[in-house]
């Protein structure tokens, strides 16, 4: 409990004590009134001040205003104790609300408790404990068993298993050795590690993730905006209705005295306070975002929760998303009078400047065959990577090409079609086609299950996009169960296809694009929802996507749909519940069957239940 909450509680208790004294001495002339008024002021002075301030700023109608005039009304008709009780209960309710909100914020922060407060910096062989913010890129830090990795880096010494679950939701520990990348937020489980940092604190994974979760609240869902707007119109209507109930009946010749009607009007004001909605709706979205984070899914705002909950079409990128994106060279075919090792070496030189998974596999293979070492990179110049086509560079003043048939067109070469299920990388030098390298990728185990799970949650439109050739694409589509396959696409074609699909909004509904973040940032931003997978560590993807799945398990897509639907359900439950109960009480209040203090109970109780319900969004039970 923070200081502010503590102070408020003490104030409410003091006001309560004075109030009780007031009731005890109610028969002593003036003393009862004096004590009652004091209790009222102690409990509610801030509410009155706030409503006066709001009136001055032109924002008349809010719950402070409602409470102030309701209690003034009670005082006016001589029901001092009722007025004090209303103010006390209202404040107590508000206090509970702040407490609950604080608690749920705290549990989200705790669950995101991935930031390390210190780093063991190695300076000339001696360890110094420093603030992670002060560690420069390229420093060496030591992470002991049980400690959190404070900054992103590369292991230089030691080997260990790391618990990555706080970031990825993945339960199986990850083994690392010298040369492997480690991210801040992992927990070292078994061995001492020496790490050379590659990023400073603000650029490290933990900082990025925390920033994301903290900013998520600012992107409002439609339901949240609805509530804010609703409160703006609703309160003036209620005040107008209260005025009518207070004065109209007597003017129209009612037999009941004016004070009875004023009292009814006051309870109406109290009941109609919209706080249950105003607090519980954003809290539910916050809970949903927190619950998803716990599963290794970052959702960047409440608006995206709303969109995912009504997802109808999912468009997948093939490489790295449905397939592992880990290629292996399976065959090399000569088409000219050259040795296959020569083809591989030239290709590897070109590809050494690319991060594409295909490029990595070719370089690996060349290294394994001892055809290539890192110094050989000096042999090449004028390197160009053409997205969706391949690489070209200059070796001994001659241009070397490594890529698909589209790249060969650039070299004015006709690439003969190869009937194979692997991806083909043609290799050409100047204007001679030397041969081709066949590389192949594996389908992720979870991909096929994902399609079935998507059907089960009612998402039946699935589309696969790829820059790879048609034969490979169709084969993979068939194996995992996607019938709509578009192949041989450049990154810009992918954007066009998504736009075409979106033109027929009625049929496709909300559309998500799922990619691995390698050259698909434009599509990620164009889709209704851009989902980046396995994106942890890739800043570009984290930036461009609306939803970031931290490990590369495609089934998390279904998890995020389920979490979003649950969150939305809770939001609507709260809206219907709160408005329903209030409606009933409003009618009862207008007919005079409710005492003022019962009205406060109705208001505070509804808010309380709605908040408890909202906190359920934080708990992820994926099976429901
Ligand atoms: P995907 O759409 O499957 O994610 P990309 O758009 O990354 O694939 O690449 C599409 C195609 O372009 C690849 O299948 C490959 O034929 C070719 N390509 C792209 N980059 C390279 C590269 N560095 N080396 C060789 N071929 C490449
Ligand atoms: Mg790709």
- Describe the strand arrangement of the main beta sheet, using strand numbers: 10-22-21-20-11-18-19
Number of helices: 22
The residue ranges in which pLDDT falls below 50 over 5 or more consecutive positions are none
Largest sheet: 7 strands, mixed
Cα(first) to Cα(last) distance is: 33 Å
What is the general shape?
elongated
Q: What is the strand content?
A: 15-25%
Describe this structure in words.
The protein is α+β, with helices and mostly antiparallel strands. Strands 10-22-21-20-11-18-19 form a seven-stranded mixed beta sheet, with helices on both faces. The chain has a six-stranded antiparallel beta sheet with strand order 2-1-3-9-4-7, with no helix packed on it. A six-stranded antiparallel beta sheet has the order 12-17-16-15-14-13. Magnesium ion binds at residues 317, 319-320, 516, 518-520.
